[in-house]
Amino acid sequence: MDNTYLSLGYNSKARWLSYWYQISETLEVSPENVLVIGKGSGVTEKTIHSLSNNNIHVVTLDINYAVNSDVVGEVAGLPFRNDSFDAIICCQVLEHIPYDKLTVSLSEMQRVARKRVVLSLPHGRKHLRMVIDAPLLGERQLILKNPITKRNCSSKQHYWEIGRGVSHKEVVRQMRRIFDIEKEYLNEISCDHRFFILKRKKLI
Hints:
4 helices; 204 residues; alpha/beta
């Protein structure tokens, strides 16, 4: 197992909230089977197994042999038949491949997922976050991201990020060519993980 994913430094408080979103959005569609692309720490699939009393079949796929995934492969060429899984989880993965492979990667997930794709991407631009907790209203929050897109991504591990190398508008445009976007939101602790909950476009 790659020890990179086993430290609390990697599995930060903000990342645990992202795991929660991954799990809750997946279980919402009552899947019988799930594909996790990018195994990482293994928290997501282990929790889904536990919460479902092992009634949900989870398959993990990763390009890295060291993480001991069920299948070694890449998202741009998923080695599965059409409609193989009820749901796919692909979080903090696509930025590790060149942006020109985004369309084919999204198309592959659309081909394989019957009900839902839970996707997150890094959105690392500076932001302003305001939270109000008031009687009757409850908690309300507003997160404003710097709308200016940097030309290049400075990360040594990422080819691109939303707001760094490619704009949010462009990423959404690519997604909408292939999917309907059911939901879109930020992890409110760090605001760096932007979630997209996707489903197949309805046939007209």
